[in-house]
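Lab meeting notes turned into a lecture example. A postdoc, R.K., suggested we walk through two folding results consecutively so the class can see how the record format repeats. The first protein's sequence and structure tokens come next.
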Amino acid sequence: MLLAIDIGNSSAKIGLFEAGTLTASFRIRPDSPDSAESLFEAISSELEADPYQSVISSVVPATLPAFEGVARRITGSDPLIAVHSMDFGFEIDYRPVEDCGMDRLLAASAAVERVGFPCIVCDLGTAATIDLVDRSGIYRGGAIAPGLRALYKVLHGDTAKLPLLDPEAADSVVGNSTRTAIASGVYYGFAGLVDGIIERVRESEGGNVPVIATGGDSAFIASVSRHASETAPNLVLEGLALLYERNRVSD
């Protein structure tokens, strides 16, 4: 079995793959992300099988060594660490390539495996990224915007009286209280941001390009979005498993 670890800004997502199929996944938010022992306990306590291979991606470089040590301890072998020079299944047109978030490339790789070229990938988490792999099979990059929760934080942090609220779906676009007005503005506003960028990316590609959404807020927005209604919550983990298969060194 393959242990896949995707280290994000706010948490790490863990997946177990058997013969290329995701059999289990969970998310951890360890109290001490730099502590190898706490990470080992958090991950190993959730595992119901014993993986003997591992692959790791990270957008938080400082936490990578601890996760790498834990993966080695669990599997008994060195993990494959995702780097930008590996084969993702497409050419990358991003400058410099090392500045492109690894999660963006992995999600795009898994999306291409699902629907082929071209495709648009929306990763709606801490930040919202909307990326294009074009008809020629080239990853072109895309747009980065504030995530859903960032919008709530900005409203609260940059105003004197608006409260910090948890995300909620709006019953009506016209809110008749501060709470419902904020819910409407963020809910429909964020969906409009996502849809507007998708429409412009589609125009640039000259057609009705398939869209796949992933990330922690993708399911929340899917019901109101006009274009990001197809969701795949484990797209980055799927991309990690594909990366491992393409780039592992045979024994």
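The second example is placed directly after the first for contrast:
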Amino acid sequence: MARREAAWRVSARELESSLEEERGTGEREASYLLSPFGARMNRVLIAGSLSPAESIGRDDASTFWRARLSDPTGAVAVTAGSFQPRAMAALRRAQEPRPALVVGKVHLYRGRDGVGYVSVRAEGVRSVSENEERAMLADVVRQTLDRLDLVERLEKRPSTTEEELRSEGVPPAWVRGAQEALRRYPNVDRPAFRRELALAVRRIEGGAPAPPPSAGPPPTVTVVRAPPPRAPPSPPTAAERAEESVFLDLLDEISEVSVDGYADLREVMTRLEAQGVVADRAESVLSRLEEEGVVEEPIVGKLRRA
């Protein structure tokens, strides 16, 4: 059953270098962008300097805005449209570059020349102080280095088992990401990427933001055919639909009395558990509703009806 996807902490350079996809099947199966450095991304959290946005919609009925988020390693496009009204409004408000955090879903577009272009469809955009930006960059660098260590460990010791890694506290999603990175990107220069992260460390330590390096050629990859698609999942049962109804009733009840009009995710989950919907099932309900476009999380930890 589908689960709600966590947001990977990644740098702009890692996103720029991600050229391989793993597509889900059926209506509720998530798709992933596979990174050479061990991330298997559906949603991401990025931090850096966000530029003023420009309108790229063809007409008023298809409003669409695009900005660029730059960190010390590179830059990536950030977009939002009418289905992400709060994220779109946050992009439109800015008149000059400012430090920001962006949460959203990754998207890979291939042009006619076959070159891949990665962007992030924003679910939430928040302006932050420079200290908050540096703190998030520190989290990005720490997690990225840990993932690189894992990829290189599996490369040197392919006999390492998933059970062994899990016993050491390595998240299962990281194990899967590292395995896919080695399989899909066998010729990537990972030490060079480690050196690029030194630019982010300089920013974290309080140095002036360095201009991002020019984008180099995309990493050499070996394209491997994906395994045969799984059969589409069965539609939700009557019991699952009943749980969705309880979830939506609670969301409406909480958001109606909140100051900002949102329902706090933790409060929704706590009250669901009190009504007998355990955490795993509550996550599954939320995942289904997000995939169906009924519920969205435009701000991290804040829910509302889409």
